[in-house]
Design goal:
This protein is 6% helix and 20% strand. With 103 residues, the chain is mainly beta. A 3-stranded antiparallel β-sheet has the order 1-2-3, with no helix packed on it.
């Protein structure tokens, strides 16, 4: 079984911040479409739900916003060059492709 490996070392903070990455390796979402929370060291996005208002009364739609936090990228520690990607990663953080452990 061939597993992907890091080419350079990363500190845990660099992994969580997605330094040099284009995709969130756990969810596959593009990092540029997410926001980063320094306090909790993880990415999040805003989920919006729209409920139409009563147009006969001139009310606009009601918008409910919820912050959805994604899992941390690191496992709480840094990695060395040539170390295997963490087991909880499902997507390549640079290509966005699904990681196939059987290749």
């Amino acid at each position: 079984m061939h597993r992907r490996r890091f080419r350079v070392p990363y500190r845990a903070a660099e992994l969580n911040a997605g330094v040099t990455m284009a995709y969130h390796p756990v969810t596959g979402r593009k990092l540029r479409s997410l926001s980063y929370c320094d306090r909790c060291c993880c990415y999040y996005f805003i989920e919006r739900e729209y409920e139409p208002g009563l147009s006969i009364f001139g009310l606009d739609a009601t918008v409910t916003e919820t912050k959805v936090y994604l899992p941390m990228i690191s496992v709480g520690q840094g990695v060395d060059a040539d170390e295997l990607y963490p087991a909880h990663w499902k997507f390549d953080p640079f290509l966005g492709a699904l990681i196939n452990d059987s290749v």
